[in-house]
Automatic annotation (TrEMBL):
The lineage of its organism: Bacteria, Pseudomonadati, Thermodesulfobacteriota, Desulfovibrionia, Desulfovibrionales. It comes from the Bacteria. This is FtsX-like permease family protein. GO terms for molecular function: transmembrane transporter activity. Residues 273-385 form the ABC3 transporter permease C-terminal domain. It comes from Pseudodesulfovibrio senegalensis. It is found in: Cell membrane. InterPro entries: ABC3_permease_C, MacB_PCD, Macrolide_Exporter_MacB. It is a multi-pass membrane protein.
Length: 392
C-alpha cells in the first residue's frame, strides 16, 4: 500500500475510535503544552529581569561593606558623599540606609521597610513621582516621608481620606507624607523597599536607627569608563578614607551575567519538567495503540489474507501513532501559547512565546509518535494471519 492510502486508513481508524483517540491525544496535548508554557514562562521571567537592569542602566555599581573582613559595617556618610570628588570615574552616588519599622495609622499598625535616602537616590533609581514631590537634600532632618502607591492604597483602605500632607506614626515618630512614588519591584540594582515601603531623609533615618550608618550605596560611573576601573577606584578610596574600610562592589554587568546563567538553568529545568509530561503522554499513546492492535486482530488477519504485507500493516499503525502525536503537538502548541499568555497577563509581564520551543515541540511530538508507535506497529505486523483470523 502507498503512504497516501495508509494515511486515509489511519485517519479512518482514528475517527472510528473517537474516545480512544481523544484519550491518547490528551496526553500529548498536555505534554507539548506544558513544555511550551514552561519554557515561555522562563523566557518571560528572564526578559523581565533584564528589563529591570536596562531601565536603570548598566552604568551602576552597588557598594556594601564587607561583613566578613572585621572592618566597620557601615560606610561613613561624609565619605560616601565625597566619593565622586576622589574617584574620577564616578559621577553620582546615592548612599542609603535600610531598616524595618512599624507604621501606625488610625490605630492600625503594620510593618514596612524604611529607606533613608538622599535626593540622588530618586535620580539613580529613576523613580516616578505620582503625587507631590520626592525628598530633597534641603529636607535634612525635616520629618517628611515619601511612600509608594501600594502603601498609599493600604493607608486609604485603613480610613485615610487624603494622603498628601497627612501624618503617620513611624516607630513613635510623626512623619508628614510629602509625595507618592510608583512602586518598583525588587530587581536589578534596586534595593528592597521600593515595592512597598517608605522613604525618609537619610539624616532623619540616622536619628531613628539604633546603630546609625550608611549600609549601602549606589554609584553611577561615566559611560566611557569600564566598570572594573570604577570599582577599583571606589575600593581604593574607601580603604584610604575610612580606616581601611573594605567594601564589596558589584556591577550591573556582573549581575546580568549571573541572572542570565540562572535563567538559562531555570528554563532548562522547566523544559525538563514539561518533557516528563510528554513522555507520560507518549507511553499513553503506546498503550492505546496496543489496545487498538488487540481489538483489531481479526481486521489485521483479513488484510493479510487479502495480500497486505507486514510492512503495510506496520506503516498503517505507525501512521496512526504519528497522526495522533502530530495533532496533539499542534493543539498542544496553541494550548501552551494560551497558558503563557494567561501567565503574562496575570503577572503583568511582557508577553513572549518561544518560537523555538513551538518548533521543537512539534518535531518532538513526531519523534514521540514514531518511537512509541513502533512497538505496537511491529506487534501488529508480526501477527500470524491464521491466528488473527481465528480470533474473536
Amino acid at each position: 500500500m502507498i503512504w497516501g492510502e495508509n494515511f486515509s486508513e489511519a485517519l479512518g481508524s482514528l475517527w472510528d475510535a473517537k474516545q480512544r483517540t481523544l484519550l491518547a491525544l490528551l496526553g500529548i496535548v498536555i505534554g507539548i503544552g506544558s513544555v511550551i508554557a514552561m519554557v515561555s514562562a522562563g523566557e518571560m521571567v528572564k526578559n523581565q529581569v533584564m528589563k529591570a537592569f536596562t531601565d536603570m542602566g548598566t552604568d551602576l555599581l552597588a557598594v556594601e561593606p564587607n561583613q566578613d573582613s572585621g572592618t566597620p559595617r557601615h560606610i561613613p556618610f561624609a565619605a560616601a558623599l565625597r566619593a565622586p570628588k576622589y574617584c574620577p570615574a564616578i559621577t553620582q552616588v546615592a548612599p542609603y540606609t535600610r531598616s524595618f519599622v512599624e507604621v501606625t495609622n488610625k490605630g492600625k499598625s503594620f510593618n514596612l521597610t524604611m529607606l533613608g535616602v538622599t535626593q540622588s537616590f530618586g535620580d539613580i533609581n529613576k523613580l516616578k513621582v505620582l503625587k507631590g514631590r520626592f525628598l530633597s537634600d534641603l529636607d535634612l532632618l525635616m520629618p517628611f516621608c515619601v511612600i509608594t502607591d501600594k502603601v498609599e492604597k493600604r493607608l486609604i483602605e485603613g480610613g485615610m481620606q487624603k494622603v498628601l500632607g497627612a501624618q503617620i506614626l513611624v516607630d513613635n515618630r510623626i512623619l508628614t507624607i510629602c509625595g507618592v512614588i510608583r512602586h518598583e519591584p525588587m530587581s536589578g540594582m534596586r534595593p528592597d523597599g521600593l515595592d512597598s515601603g517608605i522613604l525618609i531623609p537619610i539624616s532623619m533615618s540616622f536619628r531613628m536607627m539604633s546603630n546609625p550608618g550608611v549600609q549601602a550605596m549606589l554609584a553611577k560611573f561615566r559611560e566611557d569608563a569600564a566598570w572594573q576601573t570604577a570599582a577599583n577606584q571606589i575600593k581604593g578610596y574607601f580603604a584610604r578614607a575610612s580606616r581601611h574600610l573594605d567594601v564589596n562592589v558589584r556591577s550591573a554587568e556582573q549581575l546580568i551575567d549571573q541572572q542570565q546563567a540562572q535563567m538559562r538553568l531555570f528554563t532548562l529545568l522547566l523544559g525538563a519538567i514539561g518533557s516528563i509530561s510528554l513522555i507520560v503522554g507518549g507511553v499513553g499513546v503506546m498503550n492505546v495503540m496496543l489496545v487498538s492492535v488487540t481489538e483489531r486482530t481479526k481486521e489485521i488477519g483479513i488484510r493479510r489474507a487479502l495480500g497486505a504485507m507486514q510492512k503495510d500493516i506496520q506503516q498503517q499503525f505507525l501512521m496512526e501513532s504519528l497522526l495522533l502525536c502530530v495533532a496533539g503537538g499542534v493543539i498542544g502548541s496553541f494550548a501552551g501559547v494560551g497558558v503563557a499568555y494567561g501567565l503574562a497577563a496575570f503577572n503583568h509581564w511582557d508577553f513572549f512565546v518561544s518560537m523555538d520551543a513551538i518548533a521543537i515541540g512539534v518535531v518532538v511530538s513526531c519523534l514521540v509518535g514514531i518511537f512509541f508507535g513502533f512497538y505496537p506497529a511491529r506487534q501488529a505486523a508480526r501477527l500470524s494471519p491464521i491466528d488473527a483470523l481465528r480470533s474473536e
